[in-house]
Design a protein that fits this description.
38% helix, 13 helices, eight-stranded mixed barrel, 18 strands
Length: 427
């Protein structure tokens, strides 16, 4: 089935900022849409968004990206087979002609690539996850769900960007959400009673005013217990340190504690947290330029927990292979807009899985109502999914989509559960 038309429009993300939506219309009238999200904490090597600059919306408008789609991308894709995802993505990459998608914009390419994929599934009359699975057995992913938001997502009230929970004791996707809902509400009640509650952060997690980073961990353990669960058995903790946001050149400035640590000292601090708290996953424990630190941290705790590469790996297959050769990380975060196209995203995921790494498909802090990543995580059998907190509709749309996939008749999908976790620690 050939593509008949490609259209682009400006829509708005969860921060009220402009972003790009693309609609692909096939010759049989079936359609697919894709929307580009936007990150706040970004790796330096990820695909670059095309923003207009100037005064309008503080330079964040996307009119140039829309023009590129209408005048260059749309004519190039018209008449192409919609099911030829790799060929279409190669066309997009060649049209852009830069190594980081800077000319046409990673936002333009991401939205277009996702729209083509969605249109292909629509033509096949299949849910997107089922189209991607191609008849292979797959599983709904184990959720990582933010309870407290910090770092760049919450005005740096705490240094750590995400304090999350993983309901590893859940038997179904729906039960994982039930358990998380109880923990999220318990955490809010504890914070309201004690005073350090300042609203919600970009991804819907509670926005705290803690005096120490460890206070967030203590409160999270208390919330798990208040909700009626056993920490580390039924509900465990996952962290996104996002160390590139406060570290460079092997030096790390923790604003909350007003101290500066070198790479070894930060590793020691995090290993201490792993020893004291029911942590099963730590993302970006060291900065993207601290490769030696990432290797050392992985050697220290990679047999016990997930060491997740995000800014360091930027959803890039070549970087995943290089990291594996060094022994850095044991889990890869997968973000379509870091890569810029579906094909490149899948290549990074397949590289990780071939090397024995776990994979987590992830949303961004500036999100939309697009639920494609739930289908990617399921259809690609990624094992884990991270889309933010248990609040705000751009997040809940994705969690609810997982429930729909799990409960629709005639297409049963098992739940990955705790088996999806890398590392040896039992959750």
């Amino acid at each position: 089935m050939k593509i008949r038309e490609v259209h682009a429009r400006r829509v708005w993300d969860s921060r009220g900022r402009p972003t790009v939506e693309v609609e692909v219309i096939n010759e049989d009238g079936t359609t697919g849409c894709g929307i580009a999200p936007a990150g706040a904490s970004r790796g330096t090597r990820e695909a670059v968004e095309l923003r207009d600059g100037g005064q309008r919306f503080k330079g964040l408008d996307v009119q140039a990206a829309l023009r590129g789609i209408e005048h260059e991308i749309a004519p190039a894709l018209a008449g192409q087979e919609v099911t030829n995802q790799s060929g279409i993505d190669a066309t997009l990459i060649a049209l852009d002609g830069t190594p980081n998608k800077a000319r046409l914009g990673g936002n333009a390419l991401t939205a277009t690539s996702l729209a083509v994929l969605s249109a292909a599934a629509a033509h096949a009359r299949l849910p997107l996850w089922q189209y991607l699975a191609g008849g292979r057995p797959v599983a709904l992913p184990l959720p990582q769900i933010q309870i407290f938001g910090g770092g760049a997502h919450a005005g740096r009230r705490v240094d750590v960007q995400d304090f999350m929970v993983i309901a590893a004791g859940a038997a179904t996707f729906a039960q994982a959400l039930e358990m998380t809902a109880e923990v999220y509400r318990a955490a809010g009640e504890l914070m309201a009673a004690r005073g350090p509650l300042s609203g919600v952060a970009d991804e819907g997690g509670w926005w705290p005013s803690f005096s120490r980073n460890e206070e967030a961990l203590d409160t999270l353990v208390a919330a798990i217990e208040k909700a009626g669960f056993i920490p580390g058995d039924e509900v465990a903790i996952a962290l996104d340190i996002a160390a590139s946001e406060f570290g460079q050149g092997g030096r790390y400035r923790l604003a909350l504690e007003n101290e500066e640590l070198d790479s070894d000292a930060l590793c020691e601090r995090l290993v201490g947290w792993v020893d004291r708290y029911p942590i099963v996953s730590i993302e970006d424990p060291l900065a993207e330029d601290d490769e030696a630190g990432l290797v050392a941290f992985t050697r220290a705790v990679g047999h016990r927990i997930q060491v997740v590469g995000d800014d360091y790996l930027v959803t890039n297959a070549a970087r995943v292979h290089a990291a594996a050769a060094l022994g850095a990380c044991n889990t890869v975060l997968i973000k379509p807009n870091q890569a810029g196209t579906v094909t490149e995203t899948l290549a990074a995921l397949e590289a990780a899985q071939s090397l024995g790494y776990a994979t987590i498909v992830s949303a961004r802090s500036g999100e939309t109502e697009d639920v494609a990543i739930v289908h990617l995580a399921t259809g690609w059998n990624a094992g884990q999914l991270k889309v933010g907190s248990f609040a705000r509709s751009e997040r809940m749309a994705k969690w609810n989509e997982g429930v729909r996939i799990e409960t629709r008749p005639h297409a049963p999908v098992r739940f990955a559960g705790r088996a999806a976790l890398a590392g040896g620690r039992k959750a």
